Each structure stands twice: as structure tokens, then as C-alpha cells.
Amino acid sequence: MEVRLGHRFLSRNGVHLRMCRPTVYMSTKDGVLELVQNAVRLNLDDELLIIIDDVGERLELQNVRIKEVNLISSNIVLEKKE
């Protein structure tokens, strides 16, 4: 198996798959809000979640938790802590 993150593909037995970077959403009482596309890093430091995308933009959120990580659809859903 070959993994090349710089070229963003996986190869296994000659089959190439494009690697998708996840989209981060916030679940609210009114629905789901898209926060960040192409997230490459999530860091949790105490109550502060820092999300960094593939061009280095950062979003900082207080008092949130991860509700769901879906590796098939490349989605991460957050929600506010109560």
C-alpha cells in the first residue's frame, strides 16, 4: 500500500483514490451549520478547540465537543457543551 499525502491519493493494488479532507459542522437546534472545509488539524486545549484548514486559516471555538466523526463521508460534527 502506498500513501502520498502531498499528492492526495492512496494506491492499493493499482487503484488510486483521492483523499478527502473533512468538513467540520456545528449541530444546533435549528440544524447543521458548516464551519470549515478541508480541515487538516483539530487541537483541543482545555475548553478551546482550534480548527486549522489546508491554507492555514484557523477557527477557535469555546466549550464544544465532538458529536460525530464520519470517516466515510469525511465529516466532523461538533456541538456546544451544555
Q: How would you portray this structure in words?
A:
A hairpin with a 2-residue loop joins strand 2 and strand 3. With 82 residues, the protein is mainly β. Helices cover 0% and strands 66% of the residues. It has one domain (21-80): SH3 type barrels, CATH 2.30.30.
What brief labels describe this structure?
82 residues; mainly beta; SH3 type barrels; four-stranded mixed beta sheet; 0% helix; globular
Cα shape:
globular
Rg of Cα set: 15 Å
* Low-pLDDT residue intervals, each spanning 5 or more residues: 1-8
Mean pLDDT score: 84
Please write the string of helix (H) and strand (E) elements. EEEEEEEEEE
CATH architecture: Roll
Helix content: under 10%
Instruction: Enumerate how many helices there are, as a single number.
Output: 0
